[in-house]
Write a structure and sequence with these properties.
With 388 residues, the chain is of the alpha/beta class. Helices cover 40% and strands 13% of the residues. The chain has 2 domains: 228 residues, 3-Layer(aba) Sandwich (Rossmann fold), CATH 3.40.50.10540; 78 residues, formyl-coa transferase, domain 3, CATH 3.30.1540. The strands form 3 sheets. Strands 3-2-1-4-5-6 form a 6-stranded parallel sheet, sandwiched between helices. A 3-stranded antiparallel sheet has the order 7-8-9, covered by helices on one side. Strand 1, helix 1 and strand 2 form a beta-alpha-beta unit. The longest helix is centred in the middle third of the chain and has 24 residues. The protein starts with 8 loop residues before the first strand and ends with a helix.
Length: 388
């Protein structure tokens, strides 16, 4: 079954994480993604265990559904081949700094007049027009600038990153969404456009969705702005609560959910307590509220509570480790982890794309490519088209 992007060709000149996340999602949806790599390959090819040279586990998890073309862009022949690939493409994606893109002739201004239908997408650390534009940036830098270490400090007293490449991965999803929006516009108008995804702005906007909080109100003259930050998540009780044996994650929100929760834990008396009667009052008294709940939870095991909460329709779940996610029964039910038989790397376990499209589903139809595996195939086809 063809994917939603069947017939769309993407020239992927990205490395590391952000760009490959976006282009892998495009490939999952059926686009023909041609990954252009330097002779040394994407640096992530060297990270993690390998069954073959240049096929590290880190690379495998970010580059399925792509073909690899090896080009030396330092040489005229390589640059000419890249231009030929772009001429036949719908989308070009790169994460180069502006000067490097201009020297290669793949900046938007160089390509737009010759290829008016082209969607030209770039991912960079900072937006054009700002003082940080063209500074180098990776996940740790963007986490720091967008306030992630400060969030950790407000909650735990210790400055720290999130233990994941949150900025790279999230901005990759944003970049995918922006490219898809530009393709929709092109379908309606016949005209391509430039897509820019600056990491700092994207991550800051994401971070502030709830953390603007009362700061959203512009103060009247003579007033001070309200503090910034969503208080509930900084509370020391914003954590999994301990049962008799293992921690439990619980997040009742509505009045009805809280009433059912109070009944289950044997504290029906709290239903009429003014301190917990509305969502606003519960937020004001959240530390006391969760202390009372946790004290009641300790009389039963986590499994017993999960069964009870499921019957009562109170949102709750276990505090999983990564290995628990891999073994979760629901993931088996929905066939989330799929085994792919790779032609050179053997069997690979791959989380599938979580987006469900009934008529044009996502799929894993091509394994991560070896460096330059498809150079002859792709460039040969381009030469045949040019000769014809």
């Amino acid at each position: 079954m063809a994917g939603a992007l069947d017939g769309i060709r993407v020239i992927d000149i990205t490395t590391f994480v952000l760009g490959p996340v976006a282009t892998q999602m495009l490939g999952d949806m059926g686009a023909d993604v041609i990954k252009v790599e330097a002779p040394e390959g994407d640096p992530t090819r060297g990270i993690g265990r390998k069954r073959s040279p240049g096929m590290g586990s880190f690379f495998l998890n970010l580059n399925r559904n792509k073909r690899s073309v090896m080009l030396d862009l330092k040489q005229p022949e390589g640059r000419a081949s890249l231009q030929a690939l772009i001429a036949g493409a719908d989308v070009v994606v790169h994460n180069m700094r502006s000067g490097a893109a201009e020297r290669l002739g793949i900046d938007y201004e160089s390509l737009a007049s010759r290829h008016p239908r082209l969607v030209h997408a770039t991912a960079q650390g900072f937006g054009r027009g700002g003082r940080y534009f063209d500074r180098p940036a990776y996940d740790d830098v963007i986490q720091g600038l967008s306030g992630v270490p400060g969030l950790n400090r407000r909650m735990t007293g210790q400055t720290g990153y999130m233990p994941m490449l949150i900025a790279d991965k999230l901005c990759g999803v944003y970049l995918y969404s922006a490219i898809m929006t530009a393709l929709l516009h092109r379908e309606r108008t016949g005209v391509g456009q430039e897509v820019q995804l600056p990491m700092f702005e994207a991550m800051a906007g994401f971070n502030l969705l709830e953390h603007m909080a009362d700061h959203v109100f512009v103060p009247a003259q003579g007033q001070h702005a309200a503090p910034i930050g969503y208080g509930r998540v900084f509370s020391p009780v914003h954590r999994p609560l301990m049962t008799r044996d293992e921690p439990l994650c619980i997040i009742a929100n509505t009045d009805a959910q809280w009433h059912r929760l109070f009944d289950l834990i044997g504290r029906s008396d709290l239903r009429g307590d003014d301190r917990f009667g509305t969502i606003g009052r519960r937020m004001e008294n959240v530390v006391l509220l969760y202390d009372l709940v946790e004290a009641a939870l300790k009389v039963k095991t986590r499994a017993e509570w999960l069964d009870a909460f499921a019957v009562a329709d109170v949102p709750a779940g276990p505090a999983n480790e990564l290995a628990d996610v891999r073994a979760d029964a629901h993931m088996a039910d929905v066939d989330f982890f799929q085994v792919f038989d790779h032609e050179s790397e053997g069997q690979l376990l791959m989380p599938r794309n979580a987006m469900h499209l009934s008529a044009t589903p996502a799929s894993v139809h091509r394994g991560p490519p070896r460096l330059g595996q498809h150079t002859g195939e792709v460039l040969g086809a381009e030469n045949r088209l040019t000769d014809g």
